[in-house]
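the two lines:
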Amino acid sequence: MTEQPLPVGPADIDAAARVIAPFAIRTPLLSSPVLDERVGAKVFLKPEMLQRTGSFKFRGAFNKVSSIPRDKRSGGVVAFSSGNHAQGVAAAAKILDMQATIVMPSDAPLSKRERTKAYGAEVVLYDRDREDREAIARGIAEKRGATLVKPYDDPFVIAGQGTAGREIAEDLAALGLAPDIVVAPASGGGLIAGVATAVKARYPRAELIVAEPDAFDDHRRSLRSGHREPHAPAGRTICDALMALMPGEITFAINSRLLSRGVTTSDAEVGAAVAFAYRELKLVVEPGGAVGLAALLAGRLNAAGKTIVIVLSGGNVDADLFAELVA
Amino acid sequence: MTEQPLPVGPADIDAAARVIAPFAIRTPLLSSPVLDERVGAKVFLKPEMLQRTGSFKFRGAFNKVSSIPRDKRSGGVVAFSSGNHAQGVAAAAKILDMQATIVMPSDAPLSKRERTKAYGAEVVLYDRDREDREAIARGIAEKRGATLVKPYDDPFVIAGQGTAGREIAEDLAALGLAPDIVVAPASGGGLIAGVATAVKARYPRAELIVAEPDAFDDHRRSLRSGHREPHAPAGRTICDALMALMPGEITFAINSRLLSRGVTTSDAEVGAAVAFAYRELKLVVEPGGAVGLAALLAGRLNAAGKTIVIVLSGGNVDADLFAELVA
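prediction for all of em together
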């Protein structure tokens, strides 16, 4: 019995890499002797806070928005997002001279709302507990003839995020190294799906691990059961970027095949990781971007003696929260 | 009439690059679309906060400490420093299994004192206003048979710092670009002397500019007069790393030949640059490391339309000051 082909393959990521190259930052692969010594491993960090808009989201957003046929571009784009996808879509639309409308929760970090507006997008706020962001976005899309740019459950978006994994694989190959473990956070799972696709294409034996906040462990649950499962209700986390209810359909089709397992971290561990990144790495990581590093520092990855890559997925964090975490 | 050869040449920097390669981080060259758009130039950042110990100082310190003959290593090393050179020397000595004693001002940032101790060095505090740090360090060196590792006025130290410039030149060449302007901060002038030597070797037409705090403008004064001159007395600045009284003798022999001019920035401009780096670059820059960026953002570099490199020299800043600056 042969396996079904996955909805996104390495060739899609190669194509995405060509599309985004003129506008995206090719982020470096960083290392830190202090971190290596602390965890007893050879650690590489993929610092996506250095990406355009301050998170990996620009990659997928630009690849998707670029795929919209020219005769449909006048209607603009619409997206729902807690903040990083919002900025990615807004920046992509601006480059391609399109209108963007972003539906954001009213409790999204102020800096994410402000930065989204700064890219020229119209921001529509909704109540996270009482309104359906997808319905609002679809309503706007219909009324304006706009194209909906989903945050993760879209092959173009996943392929775009996968360019981060492609760069990881390229840079490790240039160093003559193979990764034992690659870790990335997940909300809907687009980043880790793309990264896993690219990394596994070159390094089939690499172990791909998804990192989540304790209370938002839907990927871990779903990987265990083999079915898409929501996280438990009413959880809270400082990881505002990682609050999707359950894995995406397309992303889970990929992740259930390519990922090994999930790990989770407490808010306290995430805060410690943000502070470590400030103090020792000199990088600004947002809470949601630090869950993989948090899992590593908390000893949850069996990293000793291994070559391990941690994706730091973004750095858009309000200054007051950041100050509190690094104090 | 032919010019005298300078005390440090490109071959010394090539040699230093080989010496430090196994232990130093080869920092990337970063760019930011937001920054480019804001200043209307193609800007590259050399993020030396990503260097081992959080500043460029490890480069020169390791090159110098490595040059100590084996039969003199048992006496250890001694250095005087406000904090970044301290960490560089302490880390270099630890790698080479040598004792390090560091003479630091009692008002040095807490994080710099703590980090220096964390590398295993003994820290001796002195009063910046009433004691002579060089005399204290020399006393310790004589008593213990230790080798004094000067912070800037040493050809090995300058050659080590120059490896940052060598990497800038290599990375720009790989992109097919030539820099119009390269900016670095100066306290005693070792970093800019090394960077200028390496950059001018490949790009003789590049304009090298030294950046300083308003009240510590000894390089600018000295470049204007052609003689080493101290800054005005009793100045204050948040740039704790840039408070040397006047340019070094060896560094000025190089800088007076290779630099075009000096620019200065106010503490308010430096604070704004630290905040910009937090918000848009997602990098932790200490005040002294941000003077070049501050000069760029304040419009003091005639950058429009040019290809410009800014060295961000370090990121060791106490969390409370950082929080205040980015608020």
